[in-house]
Amino acid sequence: MQSTKYVSNSCESAFSNGPIEGINRKIKALKRICYGFKNMDHFYARILLIVK
């Protein structure tokens, strides 16, 4: 019975976690690509470039 309440709430709500999930996917892909960066500041700079 609880799950039907959650499904109906998600259909009626205008909020979505899609944009956040997209950012997480991009960061995870960047982690795979940039494996072995010696400077973490460069990694964080790449994340900021992708997200903004």
Summarize the structure.
With 52 residues, the protein is mostly helical. The protein has three helices and no strands.
Q: What is the topological layout?
A:
Elements: H1 2-12, H2 18-33, H3 40-51
Give an overview of the whole structure:
The protein has helices at 2-12, 18-33, 40-51. It has 52 residues and is mainly α.
Give the number of DSSP strands. 0
What form results from the Cα inertia axes?
Answer: elongated
Average per-residue pLDDT, rounded, comes to: 85
Outline the low-pLDDT stretches.
none
Distance, first to last CA:
41 Å
> What percent of residues adopt helix (DSSP H or I)?
over 70%
Classification by helices and strands: mainly alpha
In DSSP terms (H or I, runs of 4 or more residues), the helix count works out at 3
What fraction strand?
Answer: under 5%
Q: What radius of gyration results from the CA coordinates?
A: 17 Å
Based on the model shown, name its key terms.
0% strand, mainly alpha, 52 residues, elongated
